[in-house]
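#struct-pred
JK: can someone run the complex with adenosine-5'-triphosphate? inputs below
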Amino acid sequence: MATTRSLPQRLVHDWLPVAVVLLAVLIAWYVAAWGLNAQGAIERVLDEEAGYTQMELFEATMTMERPLMPAPHQVAMDFYESLTEWPIDSPRNLIYHVIVTGQSTLLGFAMGTALGLVLSVLIVHSRTLDKALLPWIVASQTVPVLAIAPIVLVILGSLGFAGTAPKAVIAMYLCFFPVTVAMVQGLRSPQKIETEMMHTYAASRWQSLWLLRLPAALPFLFPALRVGVAAGLVGAMVAELPTGAQAGLGARLLTGSYYGQTTQIWSALVMSALLGLALTGIVAGVERLVLRSRGGV
Amino acid sequence: ADKVTVQLKWVPQAQFAGYYMAAAKGFYKDAGLEVTIKPGGPDIAPTQVIAGKQADIVVDWMPSALAAREAGVPLVNVAQVFNQSGLMLTCKKASGVASPKDFKGKTLGVWYGGNEYPFLNWMGKLGLKTDSDIKILKQGFNVDPLLQNQAACISTMIYNEYWQVVDAGVKEKDLVTFFYEKEGVATLEDGLYVLEDNLKDAAFVAKMGKFLKATLKGWDAAVKDPEGAAKAVVAADTSGSASLKVQKRQMENVAKLITNAGTKKIGYLEPAAYERTVKVLLAGGSDPVIKKDPGKAAYSHAIYDAAQK
Amino acid sequence: MTESVTSMWFWPGMLLLALVAGYSVYRMAAVQGARWVGMATAALFGVWVVLFWEILVRALDVPRVLLPAPSLVMGSMVDHAPKLWGDFVQTVGKAVVIGWALGCGSGFLVAVAIDRMPFLQRGLLPVASLTSAIPLVGVAPIAVMWFGFEWPSKAAVVVLMTFFPMLVSTLAGLKAAGKLERELMYSYAASYTRTLLALRLPAALPFIFGALKVNATLALIGAIVAEFFGSPTSGLGFRISTEAARMNMPLVWGAIVVAAVTGSLAYALLVQLERRAAFWHPSVREG
Amino acid sequence: MNHSESTHLGTAPSQTHLQQRTAVEVRNASVIYQTADTPVHALSDIDLHIAEGEFVSLIGPSGCGKTTLMRVIADLEHISAGEVLVNGVSPHDARLARAYGYVFQAPALFPWRNVLANVTLPLQIQGKGKAEAKRIAMEHLERVGLKGFEGKYPWQLSGGMQQRVSIARALSFEPKILMMDEPFGALDEITRDRLNEQLQQLWQRERRTVVFVTHSIAEAVYLSTKIVVMSPRPGRIVKVIDSPLPDERHLGLRDTPAFMELAHEVREALADGHH
Amino acid sequence: MNHSESTHLGTAPSQTHLQQRTAVEVRNASVIYQTADTPVHALSDIDLHIAEGEFVSLIGPSGCGKTTLMRVIADLEHISAGEVLVNGVSPHDARLARAYGYVFQAPALFPWRNVLANVTLPLQIQGKGKAEAKRIAMEHLERVGLKGFEGKYPWQLSGGMQQRVSIARALSFEPKILMMDEPFGALDEITRDRLNEQLQQLWQRERRTVVFVTHSIAEAVYLSTKIVVMSPRPGRIVKVIDSPLPDERHLGLRDTPAFMELAHEVREALADGHH
Ligand SMILES: Nc1ncnc2c1ncn2[C@@H]1O[C@H](COP(=O)(O)OP(=O)(O)OP(=O)(O)O)[C@@H](O)[C@H]1O
Ligand SMILES: Nc1ncnc2c1ncn2[C@@H]1O[C@H](COP(=O)(O)OP(=O)(O)OP(=O)(O)O)[C@@H](O)[C@H]1O
Ligand SMILES: Cc1ncc(C[n+]2csc(CCO)c2C)c(N)n1
Ligand SMILES: [Mg+2]
Ligand SMILES: [Mg+2]
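RT: done, structure tokens with the ligand placed:
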């Protein structure tokens, strides 16, 4: 059905709802900014003795230096200035931080995916690992990352890992979980009849894995990769805090919070959401390519 | 060149201007050293870093350094850069606090991680019970609780958070401040610490002597030239958040805490000041940071002496 | 202890012990039947891991501030049991439970509400994936700013983290009922509500439980991390951050253990609940 | 399109088992599915008249539109052209009046309901009281030979038993029109024979209108009062055969010459349509 | 347990189509499934001899153990007691020697492989070269009438076409023994007839040993040289019937008295076992 839609129809069908929802979010944001900032504006910006009009109050809430919630246009301005007024290799340009965070995210994502794949293959093939490992993998995700990140970084540092690698390890820690769980499910998804067919061909374990289980698991893998890359981004940003908040979107968030630059926090937040969207978009693109190459399943 | 890695306690700011100044002005290079300055942050414990052998020397406050010592990381103070405490409690007049007597029934923001003990000590002196008379909030690393009126008073540093409150639009006349130094509960802040074992190594002591000498030179320069110090700090900030104006002001306030700047005494740990800090820490609450007096083993003047050559 | 490492027998000994450990877990896993076998195997594996951790930390003389031995952690947990209990009540009893219930509940209700509005769904889902990429380290300071340092700000973070996974899962679950089954209800001229209650919600149960489980661990982590950015003087996150700053690593790990055990128990509990509620689902039926 | 025999449908045959009231009236109906490349003519120009109380079988090769035609009648599919009336009203209204009991090719039982609860489901929807619903359901379960299984869950039954539950469910509803899409496809011959017999008796007793899809010529001949032979690409009716067999039937009938002759006629029509 | 006729199996009947070498030998085999409540006797005391080149049909009501017996022969299930030999070795060794081509009741095609790739799958596993695998696969696809569809994906085919792909897949493997579990269950009668004819011709040509499960008496009689009638609870063989029909068969045969007589014999045996 969807294939018969023309381009303008597709635009209306797919993007109009998003536009409407975003517009609603924007309006709600303005209202919230006005409501949340009002008290601070009365206390710290407006001269109470001199009195003020409601219009002045509204204006003040939209332009505060240190708002409780910056107005969207303030964030947009900050965004714009950051991107246009500084060279790309300047720490004041958000793209610079996107690159830093993006690197550790992608590296961690790659490592996490690899680890997840290996673990899931082992778990599926070994009853022992299935029973012994799976509960601990679940438990591993209940350990608060931010709490162990500093320790992990120091330990990794003493093992000689520095720079992007230790941050990528934290990203990996969050990435591998969805991949493992989904792949265990996916590798087990072939029906009995299909595994028995391979059995009658006297296919080796390896052949069964390669010819049946892995292809059958692909539809499970890609949604997990999309979740995983988003989780990896969170991990990379969390890992930037205990590495001295030097650079990266996580560092921007932290220093923004530290220096009370609310607008900076929000533009870093928006940027990280966009980065997350871009990364999941890339994964979705790869997914589409792979699935098309096998006929659309 | 000899390699030295120093771990700071917090993000790049004028609080650490001496190190950045020494690097910027080439003092370290002149001393034949290749120095790596690792910035810190709220989640970095310098003691953990040095225990993991990721730094040769760390900047830390004495409460957490002595706590680490008791926890099995034998840190030794080898130089005390700040000889005054910049810690204070900043309150909004509007909340009804005019003197320490008024704390009763109020919410007070406190930094934890060792810094709570001077505070508890102080409350003890005031006769305020911390579980009923006042409400304590574990303060994050910014001043929002005061701005949002979530606390009547918050912990601030004279060189940093206090000014953030002011920058946020609260007028100085609407604020009341209480210095730990004046209340007699101050502990020693930014000092330099190394692992005890390393002090037995003469080469290490000599190297650190060179490092300390260059660093103190950097501090002298920074105190003299706040503008230049601010520039060095901002240049070193890779997060792109530090601003020149703020850092310059911070440097000017930091300078007030290094009263020995420009004299021979800069960096020298006064044993009396050390004793006083230990006493404050031992006196805190039911579960103090340190349970026994570490004695003279917790500081050494060997490197300071080496730096004087 | 260091001399034990230098002893030429240490590493061969460890290797031997590792083999014994591996074999015992293997044998345990091979036991047929009862459901406790799985748990026992996992527990045995855990016991071995802890034992190796203990031996290696001691033998290699790892500084306590980096990685404390499990025995120290246990000791510290016993010594500070009342404190940890208070932290548990503060974090789990208030922020996590309330935030999780509110987040999951509202996610579910909104999903049911917009189930009939494909337009809103097409608009909301991309926005939902946008927000899911926002890390809680960014949200937590804002939440503390808005909702104060007491538990409501942590609950708010938890609500935000759990809302969208529940929304997305429930929407997917409501679409999970088979075409045939839906047409059957349609041919009965069953009302929307009737179809929802008799067919679509039961069919969505596995999805809903999936979100409940994921959210349980997310909620715990979210509340703990939010406490790093300002909290009252108790809570697991408060404990972890303050004790880490004063180098009391055994207690830090004690708090982490409390968190992990809580998370795992919650997860296991939800798995059991799911077995009851979605008893008919093939994944449950097979055991 | 040689559905010439379907034209005399307007005038119902004079056999006694056909009442004169019309149950289903399809006129000139077409269904076209829009797919990626070319549109599929699933049904083309269908004319069909079903009187109340008839047992009509649809037979034809895979893809000839049997299911589609059933779905059109039951308001599960919309026609692209033409007209469909059920009990004198549109399929939509007939559905709202709860005219249909639909047995799908797969049992479509709800796995979270046990056998009894599955059968009572439509009764519940109809607003029947608990006790009454249970009584009716038990009665129909007994009829399909599943007494004693009412507490079991669907996955605890064999495929044939599941299908029987789904038949009981459709029957208990007491629909005006019973639609059955290959209900016995998955059963072995003997069970199938037995169910055929039961279905025949049921129809004898109650004379509901039944629309029945099958691939088995013998089944169609044994059960129906009217056999509709269809052919694919485009889906159309090639022949409508009114059964000359008596209403009272038993399995032995299948060895009679009359039966064989009718079966032969159906097979011929099928072969004709089959290219 | 009146499988008296199965006793003279050791001495092969004198019909020409039976070679003397043994393909499958089942002696006293039992299969018991342990379930939650009571153990299920899926197969009880089975004796069966299949000579090379025979076409053996298993027929019997649902749950009588037809599938289980097939699975035992193909090493998909272990026997609880007794002995099974395939080509003189254990089923396990026979499987490793790639003796079986198994056609399951459902087509079990891999949706991510197109028709050609599905058929070459077993060849690939066997280690055949790409070009050769393709050649063989194309040949067998042509044989089942699917030339020109090799680039299509399974979901683009009708159910009958899918089943034919799965047959081509089993054949291309050139197995010594072809096991087919209700391969035509889902097809309409005419397609089914056609495939029956093709299968018959194929067997004529190649004389592979075939073990075939069906619910259709006509199908069993039409195809087999030996019909094994089974009965449930516990699963056992009630009768083994050697077909007196000639090897050369065509669909017209079904209307001959010899055919009908045999069909009647099978139906009787089935009815005997059916209680
Ligand atoms: N949703 C759909 N979209 C596109 N084509 C469809 C759709 N449903 C059915 N068709 C096509 O319409 C035609 C008739 O399908 P229908 O299911 O009615 O056949 P049928 O006679 O019931 O076949 P079978 O005996 O295999 O059940 C087929 O060619 C089929 O491919
Ligand atoms: N895995 C199993 N566990 C328990 N019982 C089983 C299992 N597989 C089969 N059975 C039982 O064994 C008996 C024989 O089953 P089998 O599948 O061989 O029957 P069949 O003759 O092939 O039936 P059908 O014609 O329905 O395919 C049945 O009663 C069935 O319920
Ligand atoms: C966990 C923790 N939070 C805050 C401080 C206090 N502190 C020490 S240095 C510094 C920067 C100066 O503005 C601050 C705020 C601490 N010691 N530990
Ligand atoms: Mg159909
Ligand atoms: Mg079977």
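RT: quick notes.
Chain E has two domains: 12-99+175-274, 112-174.
The longest helix of chain E spans residues 189-206.
JK: thanks, will look after standup
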